[in-house]
Design brief:
The complex is a heterotrimer of chains A (293), B (286) and C (309).
Chain A: H1 2-48, H2 54-58, E1 61-62, E2 67-68, H3 71-102, H4 107-121, H5 124-138, H6 145-169, H7 173-181, H8 186-215, H9 218-221, H10 243-253, H11 259-290
Antiparallel strand pairs in A: 1-2
Chain B: H1 3-11, H2 17-25, E1 34-43, E2 46-56, E3 61-65, H3 72-78, E4 89-97, E5 100-101, H4 109-115, E6 116-119, H5 130-140, H6 146-159, H7 163-166, H8 179-191, E7 197-201, H9 209-222, E8 227-231, H10 235-241, E9 244-249, E10 258-264, H11 265-270, H12 275-285
Parallel strand pairs in B: 3-8, 3-9, 6-7, 7-8
Antiparallel strand pairs in B: 1-2, 1-4, 4-5, 9-10
Helix pairs in contact in B: 5-6, 5-8, 6-8, 8-9
Chain C: H1 17-58, H2 61-66, E1 70-71, E2 78-79, H3 82-112, H4 116-131, H5 134-152, H6 161-186, H7 189-197, H8 202-231, H9 234-239, H10 257-264, H11 273-307
Antiparallel strand pairs in C: 1-2
The chains are: A mainly alpha (293), B alpha/beta (286), C mainly alpha (309).
């Protein structure tokens, strides 16, 4: 009687030990992830912050980019992202509305969904090639803000579509029914009730998507980002400077750049992109908790 | 006359099948009355409701009762064509509103729904202010004038017995109201389009007893104003508030649901003709 | 109670043609936007092919896919993709070794062993890692990892497949962790409790019940991480040294497909042979990532169906 008992407790004890070990092992994995994130953030802040000054943010690069600031670089990225947003938001939100509100359950819709998921996985450099072939050369827009924005539009589209669809699906079917039962057409129900209710989710998701687009380098490398420009772009068909490309140039193409300039550029890029998107994500999850349907 | 049709005649309340037919085609009928002739509903290839013949009299409360899953709500949604919004639902037979076949070509369900309003099971105010909620329907119909809107909103909220509670907070977000208040807001919202009929799908099932009482009081007042068709699984509620009761039953899952009995509520609850009605009602009363 | 008189003689149930027309226009626009993704994806494939046609005609697909050297500007010009494919594969293999164990381990810890607040905090951490632009990872690699690899392995240059792969592995972690964690999270709690009630420890529950149930989702996460690693451009361009030689170890410099396109597209004559060959590289890259993503999507969809009740 005692033998199987002790046997069983022995097995249980071993299982407990294994469990403890596995908790430590998987915990170590998480620790590594947190460590990597903290390292990236910490290194950028520690090395980048000393280079940040009003002069750095608001003056042009000088002396072959070994001095001065990054004003035209920041402006170029802001312009590019704004233009991309203007192009991609209507398209992406409409496509999201299609999937959430109109799409029938059939093979075509499955293909649309597969396409969207697949678009999200196409390498960014391939979007660059596509933009070069179609927007820069075929449509003869030339290397420019517009060509880059169109390229980034294609790249960002799946994010905007998915985020819109997800936000619309959070809105209970009851609300659509109520609007229809009041004699509203489908579109009025969507535009006056469903879309406003889903707006916070769509806006934050779009900010996330666009801030990712702001950090893309490969697609703009071949469609319009300039190594150096003496002035700001004056139209959408001008070339432009951009933060990620500028960082690439400073880090690999120009010798003897003072480190505070390179790190300062990296700091501005990371703060601008990741902090904005982190706050957007946090705001969205807070919003979700606040409104209970 | 076939056996089926003979049976249908037996089921018809307030007279014969001919009477229902003639009412169905009579344009002079009192406003806000429905006539259902041999109505059936199918989801895809599955017949879920069959052979419903009944009249819904104007300015009265008609209660649809029956065990859950017997198609009460589905039948209700035929009356404002909300079933059109779900793919694969086919409605057979004839449903007329004041003599007009609502499923005939040329009838726009969107217009129909301004005449036949609906209140849902759970309160579902729009995420906007109390005022904008009630104004939604009139605005949908193109009403923009502030004074007219104000007037409609006040009268709708009064009719829904909510005015006194919210008249100083019309700009407040609808979500700040209690569940019962939200449901009365939804009634006011439906009334604002000036419908002739109000469909109510278990409107009190998600509310506490006090709010339920208020909703029932509101319904009693509203029947002077509109025709009401209410789905409820609460026997006492049907007995308390309705003038006419229709009992639906789906006897097995391979069979479509049908109308067992329809008639004056008092008679139904005291002296039901059909044994199945009796056992359902008494079973529920305990 | 105010009883509003309702005389409905004037009301009818006709169609408002203008409203109908507006509704139809909107519907058309929305449908068109819905189909846009198919159009763009197809256009990408078509234009890559169109631009690569010159290379396929003049060099030949067979030659490009089998030649073992890449001398795009030498005499004679040799356009062999094998060194580039081998470069991409070696970097990706290193990344895989990093992100598979750490990614899945982290997902298990977050989903199974941690409290709610920790899950929320980790979401922000992962969101942050995913949001950092690849060029920043590349730059950090240049500043920190290249000198470290050089010193640790006593090399003449720290630009190796290992360097690029390590950074790629870290960059792919957010994808792998978030998708695996979703998959683990989707496993119904009833299954866990059933296992615990049988006397299993939490870990036994995890590896006997939860992980097998979520395996397809975890697999999809790994595939998507793999896709991201193969398609990543800037970090590898900055970190691998870009020598177009088939590597014999991960401590050698390699040139990836993505890096090749990014580095050389700036120097080619548009419409020329080299330009066209770079599109052929893009076509191969697109084909590989398309297959990987399609596989991951199909697996994910199957899993979603499985838990949908």
């Amino acid at each position: 009687m005692t033998a199987p008992m002790s046997n069983r407790t022995g097995r249980a004890r071993r299982a407990r030990v294994v469990e403890g070990v596995m908790k430590v092992v998987t915990g170590a994995c998480v620790a590594m992830v947190i460590g990597a994130a903290l390292f990236v953030l910490g290194k950028i802040i520690v090395a980048g912050l000393p280079g940040i000054s009003l002069e750095f943010l608001f003056s042009k690069p000088g002396m072959g980019m070994r001095a001065g600031g990054i004003f035209p670089v920041i402006m170029g990225t802001l312009m590019l992202v704004t233009l991309t947003g203007v192009l991609v938001l209507p398209l992406g939100v409409m496509a999201g509305i299609y999937l959430s509100e109109y799409a029938p359950k059939n093979l075509m819709t499955r293909i649309v969904r597969l396409s969207i998921a697949n678009m999200a996985g196409v390498p960014s450099i391939v979007y660059g090639l596509f933009g070069l072939a179609v927007f820069v050369l075929l449509m003869q827009i030339g290397k420019s803000l517009l060509a880059s924005a169109l390229t980034l539009t294609c790249l960002t589209l799946p994010v905007i579509i998915t985020t819109t669809e997800e936000a619309l699906r959070q809105i209970p079917a009851d609300l659509r029914q109520a609007a229809l039962a009041l004699g509203a057409t489908r579109w009025r129900a969507i535009s006056k009730v469903v879309l406003p209710a889903a707006a916070p989710g769509i806006v934050t998701g779009s900010i996330l998507g666009l801030s990712r687009a702001a950090g893309e380098t490969a697609p703009i490398l071949v469609t319009g980002a300039a190594f150096f420009l003496p002035k700001l772009p004056d139209s959408v068909t001008s070339q432009y400077m951009s933060l990620p490309y500028h960082l690439y140039v400073l880090a690999t193409q120009v010798p003897n750049v003072p480190p505070e300039i390179t790190w300062g550029t990296a700091f501005v890029l990371v703060v601008g992109v990741s902090i904005v998107s982190m706050f957007a994500a946090a705001w969205r999850s807070a919003q979700r908790k606040k409104v209970k349907w | 006359m076939s056996a089926v049709l003979e049976k249908a005649v037996m089921d018809v309340p307030f007279g014969s099948l001919e009477q229902v037919r003639s009412s169905a085609s009579s344009v002079e009928a009192v406003s806000g009355s429905f006539a259902l002739v041999d109505v059936s509903v199918a989801y895809g290839s599955e017949m879920v409701i069959e052979g419903v013949n009944m009249l819904v009299p104007s300015r009265a409360v008609t209660a649809l009762i029956g065990p859950s899953g017997c198609g009460k709500s589905t039948l209700l949604r035929c009356l404002n064509r909300m079933n059109d919004e779900i793919g694969g639902v086919r409605v057979g037979g004839t449903i007329t509103l004041d003599g007009l076949d609502i499923y005939q070509k040329g009838v726009d369900p969107v217009d129909l729904r301004t005449r036949v309003g609906q209140v849902f099971q759970r309160p579902n105010p729009f995420p906007m202010s109390i005022y904008d909620n009630v104004a939604f329907g009139p605005r949908t119909q193109g009403l923009r004038k502030r004074e007219e809107l104000d007037e409609i909103i006040e009268s709708s909220l009064r009719d829904a017995a909510l005015w006194e509670e919210v008249k100083n907070h019309l700009k407040k977000h609808a979500f700040e109201l209690s569940g019962g208040q939200q449901q009365r807001l939804c009634i006011a919202r439906a009334l604002a389009t000036k419908p002739e009929v109000l469909l109510m799908d278990e409107p009190a099932s998600a509310l506490d007893p006090i709010s339920t009482q208020q909703i029932e009081d509101t319904i009693a007042e509203l029947k002077n104003l509109v025709t009401i068709v209410i789905v409820t699984h609460n026997m006492q509620q049907a007995a308390r508030i309705s003038d006419q009761t229709a009992f639906m039953l789906r006897e097995s899952m391979d069979q479509p649901a049908h109308l067992v009995e329809v008639g004056d509520t008092k008679r139904m609850f005291t002296n039901p003709e059909d044994k199945r009605t009796e056992s359902y009602i008494t079973g529920r009363f305990g | 109670m105010t009883v509003t008189p309702t005389t409905k003689a004037g009301r009818h149930l006709g169609r408002a043609t203008r409203r109908r027309a507006a509704e139809a226009v909107v519907r058309t626009l929305v449908y068109a936007a819905g189909l846009l993704s198919i159009v763009i994806l197809a256009a990408i494939a078509i234009f890559l092919f169109v631009e690569a046609r010159k290379a396929i005609n003049e060099v030949g697909l067979g030659t490009m896919l089998t030649a073992t050297s890449w001398f795009p500007t030498g005499t004679p010009k040799i356009f062999g993709f094998l060194p580039l494919i081998a470069g991409s594969l070696s970097v990706t293999a290193v990344a895989l070794v990093v992100f598979v164990p750490i990614g899945i381990g982290s997902a298990i810890f977050i989903s199974e062993f941690s409290a709610g607040w920790f899950k929320e905090a980790m979401k922000s951490v992962i969101e942050f890692m995913a949001a950092v632009p690849s060029v920043v990872y590349g730059f950090l690699g240049v500043a920190v990892l290249i000198p470290w690899v050089k010193a640790t392995f006593n090399l003449t240059s720290g630009m190796t497949a290992l360097t690029g792969g390590l950074v790629l592995g870290i960059m792919s972690l957010p994808t792998v962790i978030s998708i695996s964690e979703d998959a683990l999270h989707a496993v119904p709690d009833a299954l866990r409790q059933g296992s615990l009630a049988l006397g299993n420890t939490r870990w036994q529950t995890v590896y006997k019940v939860v992980v097998p149930s979520a395996s397809s989702g975890i697999f999809a996460g790994v595939m998507l991480g793999l896709g991201r690693a193969i398609g990543e451009t800037m970090a590898v361009l900055m970190l691998t040294g870009n020598a177009a030689i088939i590597p014999t170890s991960v401590l050698e410099s390699v040139r990836t497909m993505t890096g090749t396109i990014a580095a050389e597209m700036g120097e080619v004559v548009f419409g020329g042979l080299h330009y066209s060959v770079l599109f052929a590289v893009g076509l191969v890259l697109f084909g590989i990532t398309f297959a990987i993503n399609l596989a991951a999507d199909l697996v994910l969809e199957r899993q979603r169906k499985r838990w949908r009740r």
